[in-house]
Amino acid sequence: xxxxxxxxxxxxxxxxxxxxxxxxxxxxxxxxxxxxxxxxxxxxxxxxxxxxxxxxxxxxxxxxxxxxxxxxxxxxxxxxxxxxxxxxxxxxxxxxxxxxxxxxxxxxxxxxxxxxxxxxxxxxxxxxxxxxxxxxxxxxxxxxxxxxxxxxxxxxxxxxxxxxxxxxxxxxxxxxxxxxxxxxxxxxxxxx
Amino acid sequence: xxxxxxxxxxxxxxxxxxxxxxxxxxxxxxxxxxxxxxxxxxxxxxxxxxxxxxxxxxxxxxxxxxxxxxxxxxxxxxxxxxxxxxxxxxxxxxxxxxxxxxxxxxxxxxxxxxxxxxxxxxxxxxxxxxxxxxxxxxxxxxxxxxxxxxxxxxxxxxxxxxxxxxxxxxxxxxxxxxxxxxxxxxxxxxxxxxxxxxxxxxxxxxxxxxxxxxxxxxxxx
Lengths: 192, 221
Hints:
The structure holds two protein chains of two kinds.
Chain A: E1 2-5, H1 22-39, E2 45-46, H2 56-66, E3 71-76, E4 83-88, H3 109-125, E5 130-135, E6 147-152, H4 169-191
Parallel strand pairs in A: 1-2, 1-3, 3-6, 4-5
Antiparallel strand pairs in A: 4-6
Chain B: H1 2-6, H2 12-47, H3 49-59, E1 62-71, E2 76-85, H4 90-105, E3 120-127, E4 140-146, H5 148-153, H6 158-175, E5 179-186, E6 204-205, E7 215-217
Parallel strand pairs in B: 4-5
Antiparallel strand pairs in B: 1-2, 2-7, 3-4, 5-6
């Protein structure tokens, strides 16, 4: 599995609350997901492990070189509610020997949608609100693996859930556990 | 010395020449002042053209337009009908329609809040190059020049940024169906992302946005 903590260095990402930056939250969630997956016996390649600038092209290159069964990019935002799952907005195509760098993900969109569905089910099982969408966010379109961007938003209080900010550690753990369970299921499906 | 001055004789012809040259100078000065005033008027007219479009819109009969208003909580677009006065010029029409959408963003009860006074600097149209036009001809690319203020006010995140772009694309396509592709600029310049996430380097396909009558899931691209 490939896990990428979005942003880093001078690219701070969104400002979430007072003095909290998206780049720090994504790094924390990625580290937590890595250790949770390790505990489940799943190998993980983490693209960003420190507060450094990384070019989108380098992120895609690392992910493609790792040839992971799944690639996840972790994001966080101050708007919306629950977890937003995004896959590439490219039109699905069949895999060819050579794919254009800008649209390499097009051959994996169908797999990405399946992975998204797996994560959606796991989050729903954990009673976390989920919204699904398609977007154009670098470096997603250049990745040659099943790729989903997982964007964590605050939890708005409802009849099932209480209000929780993105920085809430128990909320982060809930999301990480659900995503790890989905990836474990995905790995066993992928092996067959 | 006084004697020498008295001896200076100015001929009649020289007098005529002097007055003729004076007349030419005055005429040329008047002509130059007039040219300068005309140039000033022309520049002022150009500078005031945008408010003039809005003033024209304010005087024309209101038309029903469909705005696709985003909702951050459920990642959807909701079709809302508004009656607004539109100017005759198509570029100005698109600008006025998108400004109405931005007005919905900054409404007190907005579902996609954004504190921005003016969001659209300009909208212009290009023909879709042959071979890329899936409509069989007549398809247009709308180039939407967003203001720097909108990009600054835009909440950062995949969802809020994607919803802003989707709502603009869906609104343009609903009211000007010839628009099949949309490209975004910020302050007249190409930019990598809207606020750190949504890609602005590509041209989006407006016609691919789903538009059911009630709400559109955010993944309409």
